[in-house]
Each structure stands twice: as C-alpha cells, then as structure tokens.
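Exercise 3.2. Students should predict the tertiary structure of the chain below and write it as structure tokens, then compare their answer with the key that follows.

Predict this chain's 3D structure.
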Amino acid sequence: MKKKTYALLFTLLLLAFSTLISACGAPATAAEATATATPTPQPTPTLINKNFQSQLSPIPALPRYTCGAWASNRSPGMYSTITIYAKLTHDVQGVAGAPATGVVHFDSYDAPLGSTPISDKGGYVIFYLPLQGRQPHMIPATIDITFTVQGKVVACSQAFFTPA
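Answer key:
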C-alpha cells in the first residue's frame, strides 16, 4: 500500500511539473506566436543628399610666420639658470632680424625675461632665466615668447619647465 501511495504521489508530482514546464514554454503554433508577440518598429529610411559629398571644405591657409619655444632643461633645480630657445620661421626658412620678448609665468606672479634679443639668420633667439628659487618644487611654469615681424606680433608655442 505504501508503494502505491508513493507511486501515485510521484506520478502526480511529475504531471504537475510537466504542466508547469509546458506552460512556461514557447507557443505551440505560429498563430499563437503572432498573437503574443509585440510588434517591432520599422526602420525610418535616411535620405542622403548626394551633393553633400561634392562640397569640399576649404583648406585653411598656413600662417605666414610660425615659431616655437622650448627650455634647455624641463626639470631644473630650483636655483638653476636655464636657457630658453625660440625659433621664428617663414615657410621653412629662419627669419633674421626680428626682435623677441618673453614673459615667464611663475606660480604666484609673471616676470618679463630681461633682454630683447634679435633673431639670427636661422631665426633663433636665446634667453637666460635664473630661477633663484622663484618657482616652487614640482610646480610647472610656462614661458610666452613673441616675435615682432613687419609690425605684427607672432606668438610662439609655450615653453615650460618644472623645478625638480
């Protein structure tokens, strides 16, 4: 009797699990699948203006004069003297005879570089900057150099240094 009870209980439990699994499964027919599926939105066509590709962006004109500046030592001691170099070019040729000025931007104030050198035939100028402890340890400083050419000011890329 006990065996029959367990067999009946096992059969009923198996039937309940089968019903539960089939109820959670996919629809049996395509009609049921269509009825329960959510509609998918249709993609919106994008119109491409073919004339757009034929329009060219203007190529920017290169500046007549370019210049760059750099420090001889980017991590000097706090009491070192560093050299600041700058070069002025027209196309790829150095420009001679252009006066240059410079300003160093210390952490708490700005100071002009003392001299006004004139560019040599290669377009180079040199400034000497005694730091004298004016810039704190591990704080970067920048230097702006400008040249004057034919009455116009040409600004260089900034030079920089960080006292070690």
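Discussion points: Strands lie at 65-71, 81-90, 93-94, 100-105, 110-112, 124-130, 141-149, 152-155, 159-161. The first helix runs from residue 2 to 24.
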